[in-house]
Amino acid sequence: MIGAGAASLLAGSVGGAIGVGVAYPLDTLKTKSQVFKSPEDDLISLVKVILELEGIAGFFGGVKAMMIGQALIKSVAFSANDFALRVLNDMGGVAAFIGGGDISGGDGGAGASSFATLLLAAAFSGFVTSFLVAPVERVKVMMQAQQNSLYANELECVQAVLQNEGWTGLFSRGLGPTLAREIPSYGIYFVVYGVLMQTAVAESLGSVAPLVFGAISGCACWIPVYPIDVVKTLVQNTEGGADDSSAIDVAIQLYKDEGVGAFFNGLTPKMLRASVNHAVTFWVYDLMMGVLT
Questions:
Q1: pTM over 0.70
Q2: pLDDT per position as a tens digit, 253-275
Q3: What is residue 252's DSSP assignment?
Q4: Rounded Cα distance, 43 and 36, in Å
Q5: How far is the C-alpha of 24 from the C-alpha of 56, rounded, in Å?
Q6: Which listed residue, of 128, 191, 205, 275, carries a Cα 20 to 30 Å from 165's Cα?
């Protein structure tokens, strides 16, 4: 058996890689819907187009880099969340962290403090992982959105970006919307899962609980931030160079061109992908933590 920190790191990496690999075709549909402005009721047509132009491989563009990247991202995410929870709990919760006491004076205060501790730890996890997510998803978006096999592999895609923007561009383009998406998203993600796993329903579900609650938390964390994800995708779908539009510029132009509905392109495959991905991720994570600790 190994320590809790190392176990969380390993379990998170394996869970993240398997989860994203299983749901990757749905993620490709989401990205192509965002880039090519496909309406929600036209997904079947989009699937047919991908099959005709690219074959089955078209649904897996960038999957190798994304599985490796998600292994790293999820290992950091789960470890950062676990680390922050342990530190905050050792300090007596959020109230102690900010220098106060029990601000409500009773059991309700303890509950609020526990919830706030979960939220702060999860937000910290989202902040830390954003700096890994931005470059990984930059490559993923470009590989998924390409047509006619513009890039032979992920390395060729990275080289194209480096040629136009250098390392700074690879790591910084889309970082703003990534932070704006990841911090609240992880806040919802870990808190919803953590709260649900403490209920009587979790006990009745037994070993199936991580699958069910992982799917619920995965969907819950995406709905509020999905418009930000649409903007991030459009910002990152470029090799750089002359195209230096900011996230705000992209959002304004998208609204002018297509209205509010454009910020929800690809939502259906994203919800399907989120439920599958996060159900598998949490199930594998929980399974491995049980074995490793």
A1: yes
A2: 999 999 999 999 888 888 999 99
A3: H
A4: 11
A5: 12
A6: 128
Residues belonging to the chain: 293
What is the identity of the amino acid at 77? A
- 204, two tokens: 């009745």
Distance of CA 281 to the CA centre of its chain: 12
Q: Taking a C-beta distance cutoff of 8 angstroms, is the pair 62, 143 a contact?
A: yes
How crowded is residue 173: how many other Cβ atoms within 10 Å of its Cβ?
24
DSSP secondary structure code for residue 59 in this structure = G
Yes or no: say if 29 and 274 are a contact pair by the CB < 8 Å rule: no
How far is CA 25 from its chain centroid? Answer: 15
Output the CA–CA distances (angstroms, integers) from residue 46 to 29, 37, 87, 149, 238, in the order listed.
8, 11, 47, 17, 21
Which residues are within 8 A (CB) of 107 and not within 5 positions of it... i.e. 6 or more apart?
none
